[in-house]
Design goal:
single chain, alpha/beta, TIM Barrel, Lyase, Ornithine Decarboxylase, Chain A, domain 1, nine-stranded mixed beta sheet, eight-stranded parallel beta sheet
Length: 368
């Protein structure tokens, strides 16, 4: 593989294929698979990722906002797309582009029915979201009668699924809480099905739910982080392949004397002579200031180079005193051998935050 010559995010579609196949191996053949590609497919490239997944068998896609769904339609995605957090201002766009809204409270239900009716829709697909313990979005169980009553007044919409979201499926210490969520969801779906008189798709499990709660796979599962190479546990991480590698180069090497400082506010002051390398990537690219001052690191010639001083907007500086390297050499911020969650831990955060935060100005390179 050619060495990086600038700051790039390499996206390995072969690794994506591997992760998809591994997750599919955990579910029954007739269980549908929803691929979550919100936030630029977790910081990579939503259109390329979705097209790859559509070609290898994903049944459904999920995005957070309407414009993410529009981008997928423009890129040739024809499979159903669930919009997890639709806004009323975008309801007409949803209908125009055949995007399916998550309906999570009475206000959204009534407003979407009004728009669908005005647009002369019949049985437009909607997904009813229930809150079973995450306490973020969703109807409560005691609103079921009101939901059913409202749905009986219109033929503009039709429920194609009802779903909820597990709060702690990766944490086996919270298993009793998760089991309670699963049981609450089952009770909700039984009452909804009885009231509707037909069987919409049931989906509850996220990536860790797929891995840890096979009894809750129901009709469809949803996966986000697993597709991108992370299993939320040391054991499961071994079964996944991170799809993204963030790389850069050494722009310049400096040789500092004792007492000299590095970067803004002189955050690092050297008490010995040392050498530093300046890398063209900074907090505008997703490597935040929290990684500075010795917390985060990069790899140069397979050796750890700690970040020193404050991370700048477009650059960061690392200590290379004991590393044999030259200007122009490749720098690894994270890759499959040194996954993003390891770097994230240095700033007391998680893989999700660092990979979704990679700026869109960073060049994407597809490895097919």
């Amino acid at each position: 593989m050619p060495k990086a010559q600038e700051t790039v995010l390499e996206i390995d579609l072969k690794a994506l294929n591997h992760n998809f196949r591994y997750l599919k191996s955990k579910i029954n053949p007739d269980t549908k698979f929803m691929a979550v590609v919100k936030a630029f497919a977790y910081g990579s490239d939503a259109c390329e990722i979705a097209n790859c997944l559509q070609n290898i068998g994903a049944d459904y896609f999920a995005v957070a906002y309407a414009q993410e769904g529009v981008a997928l339609r423009n890129a040739g995605i024809t499979k159903p797309i669930l919009v997890l957090h639709p806004q009323p201002i975008n309801f007409k766009t949803l209908i125009e582009r055949c995007l399916e809204p998550s309906i999570y409270n009475a206000k959204i239900l009534n407003e979407f029915i009004d728009v669908a009716t005005a647009q002369n829709q019949t049985n437009y697909p909607v997904h009813i979201k229930f809150n079973t313990g995450l306490n973020r979005l969703g109807f409560s169980a005691d609103e079921i009668d009101a939901i059913l009553s409202r749905l009986k007044t219109t033929n503009a919409v039709k429920v194609v699924s009802y779903f909820s979201h597990l709060a702690a499926s990766e944490d086996l210490d919270e298993r009793p809480f998760t089991v309670n969520q699963i049981n609450a969801y089952i009770a909700i779906t039984e009452k909804m099905t009885s009231g509707l008189g037909y069987n919409p798709i049931r989906h509850l499990c996220n990536t860790s739910g797929i891995l840890n709660y096979p009894e809750a796979h129901f009709d469809m599962v949803r996966s986000g982080i697993g597709l991108y190479g992370f299993g939320n546990s040391d054991k499961e991480d071994l079964n996944f392949k991170p799809i993204a590698a963030l790389k850069s180069i050494i722009s310049q090497i400096h040789h500092l004397q004792k007492g000299q400082s590095v970067g803004y506010n002189r955050a690092y002051k050297s008490d010995v002579a040392l050498s530093t390398a300046t890398i063209p990537i900074g907090h505008a690219d997703g490597i935040g200031r929290q990684y500075g001052n010795g917390k985060g690191y990069v790899l140069i010639n397979n050796q750890i180079a700690p970040i020193i001083g404050n991370v700048c907007m477009d650059m960061l500086m690392v200590n290379i005193t004991d590393i044999a390297c030259n200007e122009g050499d490749e720098v690894i911020v994270f890759d499959a051998a040194h996954p993003a969650h390891q770097l994230a831990k240095t700033a007391n955060t998680i893989s999700y935050e660092i990979i979704t935060g990679i700026s869109q100005r960073v060049k994407r390179v597809l490895l097919k």
